[in-house]
Design a protein that fits this description.
Layout: H1 13-36, E1 41-47, H2 53-61, E2 69-73, H3 79-82, H4 88-91, E3 100-104, H5 107-115, H6 121-141, E4 145-152, H7 155-166, H8 177-184, H9 186-199, E5 207-211, H10 215-240, H11 269-292, E6 297-303, H12 309-317, E7 325-329, H13 335-338, H14 344-347, E8 356-360, H15 369-373, H16 378-397, E9 401-408, H17 411-423, H18 433-440, H19 442-456, E10 463-467, H20 471-489
Parallel strand pairs: 1-3, 1-4, 2-3, 4-5, 6-8, 6-9, 7-8, 9-10
């Protein structure tokens, strides 16, 4: 691939100045238009060591309003970042609508660094490519502009620049053993990088290879590529009157997931207390093993209003170490969360290695309440099934555990519980006008629930339906499920 690029290309100073000035002025105009149209922009600058990544970004941001962009320099992950899945630290840095995020190196460098030296690097590389393509496609489907640049120089040019930096007291600190090690393996890494670029070069997240021997040519090509792409994107937004793009959606096939509110078994109070104590003690031991083995676990609770999610969660965490888990109650998104892709706010709560995060409602709100109440567009909730499945698959394949519960109760049982809450002064805080309003849309929610369960119950992240008309049975079943699933993680 790289052999087709002429690394001797140069642009003289006169030609450069004449061409770059209108592009720099236009960049400022485009930044304001992106803000007005609420279009998020992601610019990735990758390249060989010493190829000029910092120089390019410095030139690029000179004519941008610093209040409208964030620059992220990607180095080795911190301990906290290393304890999460590969893309976690990049998901949480994705820009709000109307802002730019510029990455000096990115998920590509980290994927290569973490996979290239592994024993099964080819398998790891394939997983990384799939995960990255899904990540970028989700951002693009949500309206983001994604532009990726790889600064290409020859091995000889790289050696020349490394020598110059190493011999200059002002820049010698920038050269590390890793720079020279990467240089010595230039020919070995070249086909791997070419494969990575070829398999992640997509219409909505294209790569631009920049011949980076000459500074003027490098800067001019990056500027002109960005300006053309942003002009095209803004023209589309102005002609269509919205910032999102229509995409061809392939909805996941349906899987049979049956909902039952009544369990075949029941327990006496004594049997319940005995089993509860046994299961809570097992959960305590499992929590310790998750920590020791550095396995992150997410437990998702969805279900009808008054189905008993709160009581279930209380019994689940009763014997857990409070420093090792978080319970995240999910409500309506705030303004900052609305300005991001809908999954962004959940990535910020993903557990690090050895910790447990319990979601009291979750990302499934996109295909339930947001769908039924009209809080998102039809194409957004229809697209969400695939986005959710991709997110969950990437998380589990990266070593995380995921348990998903749907708490099912009958319509009559829900009414009884609503009335109990309404008439009990100690429980009245649990019932709201919104609960009664949602109940009137039971049939619409039922349709949404059935489709959610059938399209997002996958082999790697299946749903477990909890028959919750009997609270005691429901609590024990959730505990049993977590225990059984976790024991499989330890095998």
């Amino acid at each position: 691939m790289f052999e087709q690029y002429d690394l001797t290309k140069k642009t003289d100073d006169k030609t450069f100045k004449k061409a770059i000035e209108p592009l720099q002025q236009q960049m400022s105009v485009l930044q304001r238009s992106l803000r007005d149209h609420k279009i998020p922009t992601v610019i990735v600058v990758e390249g060989w060591n010493a190829s000029g990544i910092t120089m390019v970004i410095n030139e690029l941001i000179r004519f941008l309003d610093p209040r409208g962009f964030s620059m992220h320099s990607t180095g080795s992950p911190t301990d906290d970042e290393r304890a999460h899945l590969l893309l976690w630290r990049f998901w949480v840095r994705t820009p709000q609508k109307g802002r730019m995020a510029i990455f000096a190196r990115s998920w590509y460098s980290r994927a290569l660094a973490e996979q290239i030296s592994g024993i099964e690097w080819k398998k790891g590389l394939k997983h990384s490519i799939t995960t990255i393509n899904n990540f970028e496609q989700q951002l693009a489907d949500d309206g983001a502009v994604i532009l990726k640049f790889f600064l290409h120089i020859s091995q000889q040019e790289q050696k020349k620049r490394l020598d110059e930096r190493e011999n200059d007291p002002l820049t010698s600190w920038m050269i590390t053993h890793g720079d020279w090690d990467f240089h010595r393996h230039y020919e070995s890494y070249l086909p791997i990088i070419e494969q990575f670029i070829a398999e992640t070069d997509n219409q909505n997240a294209p790569w631009t290879i920049v011949e980076a021997t000459d500074k003027n040519h490098t800067v001019l090509k990056v500027y002109s590529t960005i300006v053309r792409a942003l002009e095209k994107r803004i023209a589309y937004a102005e002609s269509h009157g919205k910032n999102s793009r229509k995409t061809d959606m392939v909805r996941p096939k349906k899987n049979e997931v049956r909902r039952k509110s009544k369990a075949p078994e029941s327990y006496t109070k004594e049997e319940y207390q005995k089993n509860l104590l046994e299961y809570e003690n097992k959960i305590r031991d499992i929590h310790y093993l998750l920590y020791k083995r550095k396995i992150p676990l997410m437990i998702v609770y969805e279900g009808w209003d008054a189905a008993g999610k709160g009581g279930n969660i209380m019994r689940l965490v009763r014997q857990m170490n409070p420093r090792g888990y978080d319970v995240v109650p999910v409500g309506a998104p705030d303004q900052t969360e609305l300005a991001h892709h809908f999954l962004w706010r959940f990535y910020t709560h993903f557990p690090k290695a050895g910790h447990v995060t319990i979601f009291d409602r979750s990302w499934y709100g996109r295909v339930l309440v947001e769908r039924v109440e009209g809080f998102c567009k039809d194409d957004e909730w229809k697209r969400a099934y695939n986005e959710i499945n991709e997110m969950e698959q990437a998380y589990v394949e990266s070593g995380g555990g995921l348990v998903k519960f749907w708490l099912e109760i009958s319509k009559d049982e829900q009414l009884d519980r609503f009335n109990q809450r309404q008439n009990d002064p100690l429980k009245q805080w649990k019932i709201t006008e919104e609960d009664w309003r949602n109940r009137k849309k039971w049939d619409e929610y039922e349709e949404a629930v059935d489709e959610m369960l059938s399209r997002t119950s996958t082999p790697i992240a299946p749903w477990t339906v909890i028959e919750s008309d009997d609270k005691l049975v429901a609590r024990l079943k959730t505990l049993q499920t977590v225990i059984s699933y976790s024991e499989q993680l330890f095998r």
